[in-house]
Design a protein that fits this description.
The protein has 226 residues and is mainly alpha-helical. The chain contains 11 helices and 3 strands; from the N terminus they run H-H-H-H-H-H-H-H-H-H-E-E-E-H. A 3-stranded antiparallel beta sheet has the order 1-2-3, covered by helices on one side. A hairpin with a 2-residue loop joins strand 2 and strand 3.
């Protein structure tokens, strides 16, 4: 992990925090450890959100709605997965034997969560200023590259469409399955009581986005009625 610390230009005080940040619940359970990365991931999520929001407020002249969309693009699961992968964080992830058998070190949700857990650990160990510096050093180069966009807000785009066309829009959770650390959600989307989308994701929000994406694709192919 020394290589990672050098890359981030940090000198940890409490190494145990970073051990927890890279410990999946399956590993903690197998090794009778009291802590896994989930609490640190919860905290890191809030820190990353604040850092990116503050950066956009200080450097952009966009409206609140536009800044919200931009922030969503750079704190979504796809973005967090990219940051983790670029840093090689999956090399440090510790998972249980069962999880490792199914490629746990490479699962998008786990790899994405680890980034936030790491930022949470840095925040607790070295303070907000250091956590902010590290977060910005990783994310800002992506924000400044217009060719790099992780996420489109399909739900908002679909909402704008149905409001313009005066149609009704409903999302329904069809299925929730899997263990607590690896949930899968299936969401059905209906426009005017017609099913136009079915999405699957690691969270309800992600599943809803996938369903909205499918619905928009179908709507784009429908003939225009004069």
């Amino acid at each position: 992990m020394e290589e990672l610390f050098k890359k981030l230009k940090i000198k940890p005080k409490n190494r145990a925090l970073y051990d927890s940040a890279f410990s999946h619940s399956s590993y903690a359970n197998e090794h009778k450890k009291k802590k896994d990365y989930e609490r640190l991931e919860f905290l890191g999520d809030a820190v990353v959100d604040l850092v990116v929001a503050d950066y956009l407020f200080q450097n952009e002249e966009e409206t609140e709605g536009e800044m919200t969309k931009i922030r969503s693009s750079y704190v979504c699961e796809n973005a967090l997965y990219e940051y983790s992968t670029a840093l090689g964080l999956n090399r440090y992830i510790k998972v249980g034997h069962g999880e490792e058998k199914y490629g746990g070190k490479y699962k998008k949700a786990i790899v994405a969560d680890i980034f936030e857990a790491l930022i949470g650990a840095i925040y607790i160990d070295l303070g907000y200023a250091t956590a902010r510096r590290v977060t910005l050093s990783i994310i800002v180069p992506y924000i400044k590259d217009p060719a790099k966009q992780f996420f489109r807000d399909y739900k908002s785009a679909l909402q704008e469409y149905v409001q313009t066309e005066q149609k009704s829009l409903e999302y329904h959770l069809v299925k929730e399955e899997g263990p607590a650390h690896d949930k899968k959600f299936t969401v059905e989307l209906k426009v005017d009581d017609i099913r136009l989308g079915l999405g699957i994701g690691g969270s309800k929000k992600e599943a809803e986005q996938e369903a909205a994406k499918e619905a928009l694709s179908k709507l784009a192919q429908m003939p225009i009625v004069e």
